[in-house]
Amino acid sequence: MFGCLVAGRLVQTDAAQVAADKFVFHVADYESVNHVVVFMLGTVPFPAGTGGAVYFSFPDPASGGAVWQLLGFITNDKPSAIFRISGLTAGEGGAHPFGSSPSSSVAQVGVSVEALDLLAQQTPVSGAAAPTADSFAQFAQKTLDSLYNFAASFAVTQAQMTPNPSETFIPSSCVLKWYQNFQRRMSQNPNFWKT
């Protein structure tokens, strides 16, 4: 019914069913995981009026049990979601009837089938939302700032230039003009780079 994807690893489709409406995936070496994708396989839809609350649990050595954090949800209309887990803090959250982690090196992703109106009332843990278009635009802006600053650090005047037939020189004014044009377009429409 569900699948779980962690970057750089095989897709997991073998969720352990720990109750009639509860499913768990084990995530080994969770310290190196940044994002988790949970999705429906398309073979069995949620029963009418229900969806799946998605939880993440760190092993909690202090209490010896699992502490679960709500990441968000999936439904028949929204059959997949990506969650950021790299910013979550172990030990914060609450108990949930998924069971406990089998060892201190394994985390768990749990899917609990619940009523849609109950899902709408729940608040996911802060920091679990995947990056938005704004963060990608900020990344693009910072990358271009870095590129321009790096290229500008090699600038020399014409008087300082020495002939080198194997090099092609690009006037820094054309790079600056392109960069300023990019900044103008970003300020007018932050999503222009998607088109």
* Mean pLDDT level: 81
Within the largest sheet, what's the order of strands? Answer: 2-3-8-5-6
Low-confidence segments, ≥5 residues, pLDDT <50?
none
Beta strand count? 8
Which structural class is indicated by helix and strand composition? Answer: alpha+beta
Give me the strand/helix succession.
EEEEEEEEHHH
Q: Shape from CA axes?
A: elongated
Binned strand content: 25-35%
Q: Give the fraction of residues assigned to helices.
A: 10-25%
Radius of gyration: 24 Å
Concise synopsis of the structure shown:
With 195 residues, the protein is an alpha+beta fold.
Question: How would you describe this structure in keywords?
Answer:
single chain, 195 residues, alpha+beta, five-stranded antiparallel sheet, three-stranded antiparallel sheet, 8 strands, elongated
How would you characterize the overall build of this protein?
- There is one protein chain.
- This protein is of the alpha+beta class and 195 residues long.
- The chain is 22% helix and 29% strand.
- It contains 3 helices and 8 strands.
- The strands form 2 sheets. Strands 2-3-8-5-6 form a 5-stranded antiparallel β-sheet.
- Strand 5 and strand 6 (66-74) form a beta hairpin.
- Helix 2 (133-152) packs antiparallel against helix 3 (172-188).
- The longest helix has 20 residues, at 133-152.
- It starts with a strand and ends in a 7-residue tail after the last helix.
- The mean pLDDT is 81.
